[in-house]
């Protein structure tokens, strides 16, 4: 399936906001989407999503596992990895390859190819939604007769708050 981009949106993550709203919106959306698709948002999956939504930084699987253990969930690594695999597969989270860590998707309502802006000072990760098909990368792919299906763009630098 080709990448579908939304209109370019501002980076989500660097601005100060109420994380409780992020958690409520993300869990509400995931619950509804799972019900519509006949999927199960198990308690462990929901808790992992809540952990990811609680802050806009990449979180490693073992950090998630530690938090699950604190909350009384099974402390075996497969619990965290299965939940993360599910969340990534269905678009509720993204894997940040460079950091081998995960972030909650800031716009799970739309199919998109996000780009991630990673602050090397504070570790905050902002998700942006560039129109990859329309930019230089899209042109290069089209000129080569290539249809983009998946693209991971990760940019490391310094965020406005740390600059």
CATH-derived topology? Arc Repressor Mutant, subunit A
Strand runs, count:
5
- How do the strands of the widest beta sheet line up side by side? 4-3-5
Q: Helical element count?
A: 5
Roughly how much helix do the residues carry, as a percent range? 25-40%
- CATH architecture, by name, is Orthogonal Bundle
**Mean pLDDT metric:** 85
Q: Structural class, from secondary structure content?
A: alpha+beta
Main sheet? 3 strands, mixed
Q: Give the overall shape.
A: globular
The CATH homology group name:
Winged helix-like DNA-binding domain superfamily/Winged helix DNA-binding domain
Spans with pLDDT under 50 lasting ≥5 residues?
1-11
What is the domain tally?
Answer: 1
Alpha carbon gap, first and last residue? 39 Å
Element-level helix/strand string = HHHHEEEEHE
| DSSP strand content | 5-15%
Whole-angstrom Rg: 16 Å
- What is the top-level CATH class? Mainly Alpha
Topology:
Blueprint: H1 19-37, H2 43-53, H3 61-70, H4 77-89, E1 93-96, E2 101-104, E3 115-119, E4 125-128, H5 136-143, E5 153-157
Parallel strand pairs: 3-5
Antiparallel strand pairs: 1-2, 3-4
Helix pairs in contact: 1-2, 2-4, 3-4
Question: In short, what is this structure?
Answer:
This protein is 37% helix and 13% strand.
Give me some keywords for this one.
163 residues, alpha+beta, Arc Repressor Mutant, subunit A, 3-stranded mixed sheet, 5 helices, 5 strands, globular
